[in-house]
Amino acid sequence: MEWTGARYADKPTLEVRTWIDAPPERVWSLVSDIELMPDMSEELQSVEWLDGAAGPAVGARFVGRSRHDALGEWQTTSHVIECEPGRSLAWAVQEPDRPSAVWRFRLRAEDGGTELSEWMQLGPGRSGLSLAIDRMPEKEQKIVFVRLREFERNITATLGAIKQRAEH
């Protein structure tokens, strides 16, 4: 059977959602504090704002340092491309016009609490995943699939940690 998954150039996406028994303002205070994120992630090791920024605003930049058993250690600079307090926060990784990934949190008041989603898109810019694909182009679709499943597990864990903190 032939593998028929997405290719990197397809800019594959995924989204995970959860409902949190807390108002959007409380959830936003956690989502928008990016320096908390390493505590909620196996891969992300540290985050710090650049250029004197103290919080999210369109155009603000931050550096993130990550580690993965198969990919090693790396750092990226991200650019906030969307910031609507209490509603959404998005950033482009590396080049804003051709990011290696785009990440977005969305919050929506629902049933007395908050529906929180985390969405991400791979590519179109090059990333560490591109290097793995360069080495094994015949396995590109499997590489993309496996990485998306890793992101899905990590996002699910992050949303669970945000839910735990917001509700307690």
From TrEMBL:
CDD domains: SRPBCC
Pfam families hit by this protein: Polyketide_cyc2 (PF10604)
Source superkingdom: Bacteria
Entries under InterPro entries matching the protein: Polyketide_cyclase/dehydratase, START-like_dom_sf
UniProt name for this protein: SRPBCC family protein
